[in-house]
Specification:
It is a single chain. By secondary structure, this protein is mainly α. It has three domains: 52-83 and 91-113; 117-170 and 356-431 and 443-481, no CATH class; 172-340, no CATH class. The protein is built from 20 helices and two strands. Helix 3 runs parallel beside helix 5 (91-108). It is globular, with a radius of gyration of 25 Å.
Length: 488
């Protein structure tokens, strides 16, 4: 009887004696490489190199869904670089694919997932909102039903999928720290890119983007509003303000001076990133988020320190003209005087027109009828011709007063759940981080009245993940009697 240990050796010898299959595969691979390069040029070469990497990532995500979650975060930031890439590279579709693969990997590894987490109230809030947006597909007012798919992803579907992946996977405190580090690293890189645009110059692709229409809102009185690699200056400025808030909170709550100084330096870099964006409304991320932090901390000393820091800055901006010679400071100051701003008054006029249009449409004009999807699929529809200029206005147009009310109730419920969960925590380090995430969530929710950033990458990705973390944060808490358990 043949010893099975000899089988690999025999197979190897057979391949050596009959290597024709290797030659055929090599010829086919060479022909494929030649066809890709000949047809698509450098893009074909990149596809050839990237194919093995893509296969490895595919297998990695299916085996360990957390890999897919981190990949989703990174690609969310890369979306802004599409202005540098040929239209043939569908990064948006790739992002959806990564999320679906992460969800599939979660189901394939179902035995080690904590499915009981889906009983949390947070998840039921998402189910109610998702159900409403699905019913919106049948809205009789919608002029083109397939457009529904383009906006429902940012409205509810992506949030729902992310919630499942984050809630049931064995996410550890180390994973949360890695997520925070990745977020801060991308944000600092974005700030530096914005400085490059402002003080050194724009790349060719960025100049083309401005020439194709971006200049109308990004060059004001001859001054560039830096947009970094984000969709626009509005999102860039709001993101910078949000991460500034995170760093300030971690600075106030830091235990070591090395960490506190690091967070203070990062806060300065990120705040100036917000300043060069020229996004006035983004100031409300700080004006809403910082008081939220003081309230959540329930620490009188923090409240006093916060007041001593914030009151003089706010007073200078509101009651003096100090720094007006600097364009960025002047733009920030005008955010506190909205009634003197012509663009704000135009927004109010547009909202009055929408009020008249929607008074007989409680369920809105249908998902996908405004903003980019509306301009693409139903450009002659009234909803597509009115600038939204706000996430909540877009929801109001597409889902009506009923949908907007449901959405605001969901956001309020998420915030209240976050407060309740955070105040149950025993671990101070975990509590500080969750307070920072919730305060930033509140700031972004407020500023979304002035900019539609809650539905834009990467802000939406960060906000969706953060909302799951702070509403389920008690699963990482340490028992009151132990200072060492559950520290991974």
């Amino acid at each position: 009887m043949m010893d099975l240990t000899d089988r690999p050796l025999l197979i190897t010898e057979q391949w050596r004696e009959s290597p024709w299959l290797i030659y055929v595969l090599g010829i086919l691979a060479a022909l494929l490489a030649g066809w890709l390069v000949g047809t698509y040029g450098m893009l074909g070469g990149a596809m050839l190199v990237g194919l093995p990497v893509a296969i490895a990532l595919l297998l990695g995500v299916l085996i360990e869904p957390k890999i897919g979650l981190f990949l989703y975060v990174h690609v969310s930031f890369l979306i802004g670089f599409t202005r540098f890439l040929p239209p043939a590279i569908p990064l948006g579709t790739a992002l959806d694919g990564i999320l679906v693969l992460s969800l599939l990997g979660t189901f394939l590894n179902g035995k080690r997932m904590d499915w009981k987490q889906l009983k949390q109230p947070f998840f039921w809030l998402l189910i109610v909102w998702l159900s409403y947006t699905i019913l919106e597909y049948f809205n009789p007012e919608a002029p083109y039903r397939p457009a529904w798919f383009y906006n429902v992803r940012s409205f509810s579907l992506s949030w729902f999928f992310i919630a499942i992946v984050v809630m049931v996977n064995p996410i550890s405190r180390k994973d949360i720290r890695l997520f925070l580090i990745a977020w801060l690293a991308w944000s600092v890189f974005a700030a530096l890119w914005g400085f490059k645009q402002q003080y050194i110059g724009l790349a060719g692709a960025e100049i083309r983007w401005l020439a194709e229409g971006g200049a109308r809102t990004h060059i004001l009185w001859g001054q560039l509003r830096s947009f970094s690699f984000y969709s626009d200056a509005g999102q860039f400025g709001s993101e910078m303000a949000g991460v500034t808030l995170i760093c300030l909170i971690l600075f106030f709550e830091g235990k070591s001076w090395i960490l506190r100084i690091t967070y203070l330096v990062l806060a300065f870099i990120l705040f100036w990133g917000f300043a060069v964006s020229g996004t006035r409304g983004a100031l409300f991320v700080l004006l809403a988020g910082f008081p939220a932090y003081l309230f959540l901390s329930r620490n009188p000393l923090n409240i006093i320190r916060g007041f001593l820091v914030a009151a003089p800055i706010l007073g200078i901006l509101m009651f003096t003209s100090i720094g007006d010679s600097n364009y960025q400071v002047y733009r920030i100051r005008t955010a506190l005087r909205p009634t003197e701003d012509a663009s704000f008054l135009v927004r109010l006029e547009n909202q009055q027109k929408l009020k008249n249009f929607l008074k007989d449409r409680p369920f809105g004009a249908g998902i996908g009828t405004s903003s980019g999807a509306g301009n693409r699929f139903s450009p002659n529809h009234f909803a597509a011709q009115i600038p939204t200029d706000s996430w909540y206005v877009q929801l109001w147009i597409e889902t009506g007063v009923v949908g907007l009310t449901l959405y605001l109730m969901m956001l309020t419920g998420i915030i209240l759940l976050g407060i309740y969960k955070i105040w149950q925590l025993n671990d101070r380090t975990l509590s500080t981080l969750m307070i920072a995430l919730l305060a930033e969530f509140i700031g972004i929710a407020v500023v979304s009245y002035t900019n539609p950033i809650l539905g834009q990458f990467p802000t939406s990705t960060i906000i969706f993940i953060n909302s799951v973390l702070f509403t389920t944060c008690t699963r990482w808490d340490t028992p009151k009697t132990s200072h060492y358990a559950n520290r991974n």
